[in-house]
Amino acid sequence: LGYITCNSEGDFVCKDNDCWCHCSSNFPECNCPSADIQSMEQKLLQLKDVWNNFNMDFELSGEFKSFVKRLPLDHLLNMSTIFQLWTKDMSLQHLYEQLEGSMKQIYSKAQKMVQKLFNLS
Predict the structure, then answer these.
(1) How much is the pLDDT for 120?
(2) Which residues in the chain land under pLDDT 50?
């Protein structure tokens, strides 16, 4: 097991239901999954870019621009007024639901990757 788990660079030690690699002096980082960590960090950065792109696409969409143009400029709007205008715009609602679904998928993937990172450390 030490050969596989510790990359043949240390001894696999178990004590009190906890196991780890006791690395030899020649290989002090014998079980450091640095390549896996770097790969997951890169994937998280890619998910961040996808997240930002989805948001940008929404903000640049014709539906959102049209909504913003229809907002009155001659007085301040409170949140309830904006919410009422928002809920009346069905095309914007549809686009937002698509954005929300995409964001949930990205969030789920990111959560899984973060959990894997914690498990590696």
Answers:
(1) 64
(2) none
3-state secondary structure 36-92: HHHHHHHHHHHHHHHHHHHHHHHHHCHHHHHHHHHCCCCCCCCHHHHHHHHHHCHHH
Which helix or strand (DSSP H or E) is residue 15 part of?
A: strand 10-15
Please state, as a whole number, how many other Cβ atoms lie within 10 Å of the Cβ of residue 10.
22
14-35, pLDDT tens digit by residue? Answer: 888 877 778 878 877 776 666 6
- Enter the pTM of the model: 0.68
User: In this structure, are residues 44 and 113 in contact, taking their beta carbons and an 8 Å threshold?
Assistant: yes
d(CA 113, CA 102): 17
Q: How far apart are the first and last CA of the chain?
A: 19
Contact 20, 13 (CB under 8 A): yes
Distance CA 46, CA 33 (A): 20
Sign of the CA dihedral 41, 45, 50, 52? positive
According to the model, what pLDDT value does residue 5 have?
64
Residues written for the chain: 121
